[in-house]
Amino acid sequence: MNPRSRKMRLLGLLPRRWVITTARRRERTLYLTFDDGPHPEHTPALLELLARHEARASFFTIGREAAAHPELVRRIVEEGHLLGNHSQTHPQFGRLTLAGQLDEVARADAVLAPFDGRDRHAFRPPRGEMGWRMLWHCIRRRVPVAYWSYDSLDYARGDAQALLETARRHPPQPGDVILMHDDGPLSLAYLQAMLPAWRAQGFRFEALPLHA
Ligand SMILES: [Zn+2]
After folding, report:
1. Separation of 60 CA from ligand 1 center, angstroms?
2. How far, in Å, from the CA of 146 to the mean position of ligand 1?
3. In principle, which of 90, 123, 175, 191 could form an S-S bond with 25, CB 3.0–4.6 Å?
4. Cis upstream peptide for 70 (omega within 30°)
5. C-alpha 85 to ligand 1 mean position (Å)
6. What are the structural domains, with CATH classification, of the chain?
7. CA of 36 to the centre of ligand 1 (A)
8. Strands in the chain per DSSP E
9. Alpha helices in 40-153 (DSSP H)
10. Ligand 1 mean position, distance from CA 140 (Å)
11. Which pLDDT score is estimated for 1?
């Protein structure tokens, strides 16, 4: 398996103000991102690991989960990470009308707004599924669409060892946006091994530079 997909390479050809797949390629920075949380068990463990390494990241939360675990969302913001929108209930976007998709995004924005004071958040579509009409809507409304360039593959069935072998065989490049998930244990095992290794290679870890 390869962390870099053809789809992300193609999306990476679009202007970065429309669709983010990488950021600041010239700096030795990696952008860690987590989808599908917050999760009461896995998110705190990740936050502690990130704090120990002075790493900042971006959390694309599901609105429903954020509403269920407000203390975790507060912690994410207080500890310097970025909050992103990963829809309210994580449905299959391809099965929704455009109005239904926009409603999912608006409801999640409303859940997140009290935590970071922003009306709108960068949007990462569930499963990366996004039709052209929704993409065009986001472009027109200047909602950053946040994809990734480097997939940890932590949602694929398999063990941490297999993920680490892939990470070592295909090392990330400066500016890569790394896709992980905080609703399961694999991202913690992955980062416990890779954060020190990447740091030793001179990488820093920042939240996505969306509001700069
Ligand atoms: Zn997801």
Report:
1. 8
2. 12
3. 175
4. no
5. 10
6. 6-13+22-205 (3.20.20.370)
7. 5
8. 19-20, 29-35, 57-61, 82-85, 145-146, 150-151, 177-181, 204-205
9. 42-52, 63-68, 70-78, 98-116, 132-140
10. 24
11. 81
- Ramachandran region of residue 90, left (φ > 0), alpha (ψ -120 to 50) or beta? left
Q: Which residue has the tokens 């954060």?
A: 195
Ligand 1 centroid, distance to 83 Cα (angstroms): 14
In angstroms, what is the span from residue 79 Cα to ligand 1's centroid?
22
